Amino acid sequence: MLSLSRTALKSANWKNLGVDSSILRDMTVSELLRRHLAMFGNVNLATAEQIYAEDISMEFPYAPQHHTQRLDGRQAVINFVSRVGEFFRDFEIGDPVVHQTTDPSLAIAEYPGRAISNETGKEYRQNYISVITTRDGQIAHIKEYYNPVRVLVTTNEIEEPGS
Q1: Considering Cα of 33, then 49, then 82, then 68, what sign does the dihedral take?
Q2: Counting C-beta atoms within 10 Å of the first and last residue's C-beta, which end of the chain has fewer, N or C?
Q3: How far apart are CA 142 and CA 138, in angstroms?
Q4: What domains sit in the chain, N to C, each tagged with a CATH number?
Q5: DSSP assignment of 51-118, as one string?
Q6: Cα torsion angle, 125, 108, 66, 72, sign
């Protein structure tokens, strides 16, 4: 597993590319996902407008009731990924394993993440599974699955089960 720190993500230049939209139309779901992940907590608006469809939706089916469960529209997604840095620091995302499907606009990705909670100082570790759908070279839908217990323990909303 390759773990990418924010510094590594910047040096990969995914979020700072001045890519024209004709190149983006030819990007794979995997490439779009990597650009999406690189923006968490550090959004480049030009890239965000290029990779997210205007009507993108993002779902978190396992999110606790008082956490974000759904986002609708490009601006809502941009706001969400921009605000991650308010809650967590030292964010690292491992290299995603992307499973292509028979539909070239759909892929399933698995990737680990880690960060430190700004509020509690606790380490947050998570394994994510995302289902990504693209349309016309942009991300149209993301459904992200994660273990909500890990978030709640890290933010001191619950105690570690079994402790």
Answers
A1: negative
A2: C
A3: 11
A4: 3-154 (3.10.450.50)
A5: HEEEEEEEE-TT--TTS--EEESHHHHHHHHHHHHHHEEEEEEEPPEEEE-SSTTEEEEEEEEEEEET
A6: positive
pLDDT in tens, 64-85: 989 999 999 999 999 999 898 8
Q: Which residues contact 113 (CB under 8 A, 6 or more apart)?
A: 91, 92, 93, 94, 124, 125, 126, 127, 128
pTM (two decimals): 0.81
Which two three-digit tokens encode residue 121? 């100082």
Q: Do 126 and 114 form a contact (C-beta atoms < 8 A)?
A: yes
Which residues pair with residue 108 across a beta bridge? Answer: 99, 131
Asked if residue 153 lies in contact with residue 125, where contact means CB atoms within 8 angstroms, the answer is no
For residue 140, the cross-strand partners are: none
Query: Taking the CA atoms of the chain, what radius of gyration do you get in angstroms?
Result: 16
Neighbour count for residue 163 (Cβ, 10 Å): 5
